[in-house]
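RETRY 2/3 - previous attempt timed out on the joint model. Re-submitting the same 1332-residue input unchanged.
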Amino acid sequence: MTDDLRIAILGTGRIGSMHADLVHTRTEGAVVPVVFDVHPPSAAETAARLGIDTADSAEAVFARSDVDAVAICTSTDTHVDLMVAAAEAGKAIFCEKPISLDVAEVDRGLAAVAAAGVPLQIGFNRRFDAGHAAVREAVLAGSVGDLRQVHITSRDPEPPPISYVKVSGGIFNDMTIHDFDMARFVTGSDVVEVYAKGSVTVDPAIGEAGDYDTVTVLLTHANGVVTTIDNCRQAAYGYDQRVEAFGSQGVATSENHANHHTVVRTSAGSHGAPVPHFFLERYIPSYIAQWRQFVDAVKSGTPTPVTGADGRAPLVIGAAARQSAQENRPVAI
Amino acid sequence: MTDDLRIAILGTGRIGSMHADLVHTRTEGAVVPVVFDVHPPSAAETAARLGIDTADSAEAVFARSDVDAVAICTSTDTHVDLMVAAAEAGKAIFCEKPISLDVAEVDRGLAAVAAAGVPLQIGFNRRFDAGHAAVREAVLAGSVGDLRQVHITSRDPEPPPISYVKVSGGIFNDMTIHDFDMARFVTGSDVVEVYAKGSVTVDPAIGEAGDYDTVTVLLTHANGVVTTIDNCRQAAYGYDQRVEAFGSQGVATSENHANHHTVVRTSAGSHGAPVPHFFLERYIPSYIAQWRQFVDAVKSGTPTPVTGADGRAPLVIGAAARQSAQENRPVAI
Amino acid sequence: MTDDLRIAILGTGRIGSMHADLVHTRTEGAVVPVVFDVHPPSAAETAARLGIDTADSAEAVFARSDVDAVAICTSTDTHVDLMVAAAEAGKAIFCEKPISLDVAEVDRGLAAVAAAGVPLQIGFNRRFDAGHAAVREAVLAGSVGDLRQVHITSRDPEPPPISYVKVSGGIFNDMTIHDFDMARFVTGSDVVEVYAKGSVTVDPAIGEAGDYDTVTVLLTHANGVVTTIDNCRQAAYGYDQRVEAFGSQGVATSENHANHHTVVRTSAGSHGAPVPHFFLERYIPSYIAQWRQFVDAVKSGTPTPVTGADGRAPLVIGAAARQSAQENRPVAI
Amino acid sequence: MTDDLRIAILGTGRIGSMHADLVHTRTEGAVVPVVFDVHPPSAAETAARLGIDTADSAEAVFARSDVDAVAICTSTDTHVDLMVAAAEAGKAIFCEKPISLDVAEVDRGLAAVAAAGVPLQIGFNRRFDAGHAAVREAVLAGSVGDLRQVHITSRDPEPPPISYVKVSGGIFNDMTIHDFDMARFVTGSDVVEVYAKGSVTVDPAIGEAGDYDTVTVLLTHANGVVTTIDNCRQAAYGYDQRVEAFGSQGVATSENHANHHTVVRTSAGSHGAPVPHFFLERYIPSYIAQWRQFVDAVKSGTPTPVTGADGRAPLVIGAAARQSAQENRPVAI
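RETRY 2/3 succeeded.
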């Protein structure tokens, strides 16, 4: 339809091609006119599947008048340059997390966005998970009263390839970043101090690469709430994703999903299905909800639900967490 | 204390000795002054454990002025004679179910109780289970609106000895009787028609004794509600006790308990504890609540929560159910 | 891709347009080349959304060489004629339930399919629900031992328009048909006798139309298992879809889903999300799984998972159920 | 019976009178011959209820030959003197937690016990909760593999009177002490470092008394496992008691109980019962199990399940936690 928001996808790797599918076939009011990838066969495959165009360069995308917005899903080190160029071209911007591993670079990107006055949304999809969002809603509605403690459990089924670990910016920037955002989202309060413990319990190669694979983090928020985070790169039972907010009137807990809801009871007890294996099995509805809100915000000219500042804050917390783990002391922000 | 209700226990078999313990040590405002059993060593064992008296005969119990009430926990065929004698002695009466397998005998007992004007409560303990009671409360409070359908699942872990099966009056009088009562309790409506299917799937010896071990019953209530009951003498996973009431505004479901609430999740899925093995593991709190309400009713002179009529009705339903299963047709009551 | 199975959609009403979307965008190895509807604007809308063709007639669809299979999603009274024509055209056939309200017509359709030797699959999507399928798998794997009793709860959130009720063939053919199929699926055994109770508790207009809106059904299977079914056209709490199979070694229960898995606990107790509102919220994954299995079966030449006989049996049970409810007696099949 | 272990109760306040009841009426193989309290009417009330003796002094209890063991349930500051006297009298000892707020005093008591060679068990009842014990069993059985992270949530429904807060030794010695023990129990590993955050969110009077009412603690164990603990003196939804152990093969979670297991579903969602209000509602079975194991250990001459060292360790951790919270730095042990 003529009212569709036209969102070009930059980068058609695992996450970019997923976004292309979700925007084009499952987001009402949005289409993908064109995709680009530095590896042309990747873009071609996505384009063929959806019956859409490919572009020869990012610049060619920015030059198209039938592109209203771009989704930056390329490798992290290219995000800011693309963000600046997109902003200068007047396109609305969706950018995957992290914006950059370098806070100064983040600030350069955000400045360009601010100067151009274009909408920007950062890809913290978990905010749009119906369960996690219900925790936030319970806080906003006052159902749990004044917040006191938050606990977040977030574990991946398996660590990424060691090659990825080496360029990811470390577990705090790559994995815990989602939980830092969740802590800010649920509490509605910035983080003022971090204490973190890191260890290597999954794969010694991760330690040799200078990273941790298992971390426990204690955040102190500006409003006095204390958040604890349990992270691990490997959970044999699947993708563990839970958020709990405790306050003066109650507690709201976003529990894990299950692959199905059949229970078999025998003399040995009850047996149920595993939790979803990883983010594709768990979070597709959250990605769709994220796109719906991006499309709505851009079309209506209202603020996007995850701002540039929301993209910047977790990077600062992550750096402090890393310092805390290395020096075994709380680090103020 | 001088205000304690003094309840003598007649019959100290499995259920009677349990009642003696619960009344004497776990029911505030009640004590057991004396117990009697036709097998004196049985009474002696219970008496020694509790530091109380034994009596040489039921008559000796009725003659004691320090006995305010009696609990009839003897074999079913002796219930009515004891009920009549207790009524004539002016004692308040608690009687285990079934009152008798012979409805005419039941009527003789109830007439004596009415003539004497003594309180009578029948031992349908499941009404006092907190979960099942919450279903009834949801109905009374209007939370589920106008009732439409009820489903009761009731399965024992193992069949009783075949010797017991032969004298129990059959599965409908011995086991389903609790569910007939539950159906009347939850709906607050009498049963006007029964359709029942019976089969032998557990032990052929039960069939040879003229009984079923697996029955499915459909009850039609006076108010139009339809109740279905699933019964089996054997459930490998434990004592299955569930009640569900569906109405115009919602559904209330009393789910099974578990031996504990720890869940272990591995790559094979989630694993939890079994349901409680049998009635001692599941229903002790309901027996205690039953005694508390009996004591309160007798002391305050208010009606007991399970009347003689409540004890009679399931026996009539049970006879109709047996006829229905044998003739494969609905039987009106 | 050249290997894609090309499935034309006949009928683009609510269910047909959903199938068009699911096949074309979410079923790997399948595409929809063309859609047809007796109401051309309906077909045009679906075609535009997916960027595909419309056809002027069903005949035009059958004539296309780029159509490997057809999905019959038109009104029930047209199913058999289309099935016969599709079979004669050599197309693989997917047909929505019920095949027809007239068993003789069903037989005419199935005879044509058999004569042509084309694959046929009936749209009993609930077999492909991961939870219900896990119950069947537990039975097949022996986890619950020899089956004894099955209980199915199936309630819609709201009744359909009274105009639909009048042509639907009645609740047994329109709604319980899914549960008859589920009973056959879970037990793996045909139904030999039916006893049904029907009432009007939701809307008197349904009764005036000669139908029930609330039914309770007891099925006896050839292998002795007894299935009970609770149906209602209206459930205030959402789309209630549960299946339980009890056997000598255990019980497998497919529980309801929830809109999310956040629980809020306050002094008033715990509060969780509603169950999914209706079939679109609950069963989309089952429709996708259904299409995947259809595509796999047609491509590989293996039997389809839901045969013509599976489509016929529930209609016979439904007629017997209606007779049983009207005459208040068990009806043999 | 002559084989009964005869356990005198010293101190008949809330916890002591509960122990008297549980030992005398619900612990097979044990009786309470005599009770003592510095406030004679308190002892008299318990003695009258159970039909047993009172003693005029603790010394009189120690002098009785019909006393095999004593349960020290008096105020904390009297524990060690009684422990020393009981040990010198050759009695087996059960001592409530904390042994003392002064570690030197603890050591004096433990030395006397060691010198006398009498059995000693400390009252960490939560180890005997079936759910928490199942977490430990999952760890011991290897079901969750090598432990990595533990999370304990422990919240009281309401704070104790401010008068108690002032003498309790502070939240770490009074409340978190149970969780320190649980962390040692579940991991099977000593604590080597503590980091704690404390705040006052419930009642300013607690802060004025020099204590916290809300604390979050991060423990590092000798084996590298990290435990986090969430504590609060007030939880509007009841007594929150959960333990979770995560390892290389899975995760074991001891969830909260509920007052019953009935769920009511309406258009507003699902509604369930509150969690148990406090320890009497939740932990009675754990106290009974504790007594059974004490009786078994003393009779059989095997080690008790909670040793003097287990009673001492949490006091050391508690002191370090307090220091950590005050100085905002990790404190090594």
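Chain A touches chain D through 34 residues (CB under 8 Å). Closing ticket.
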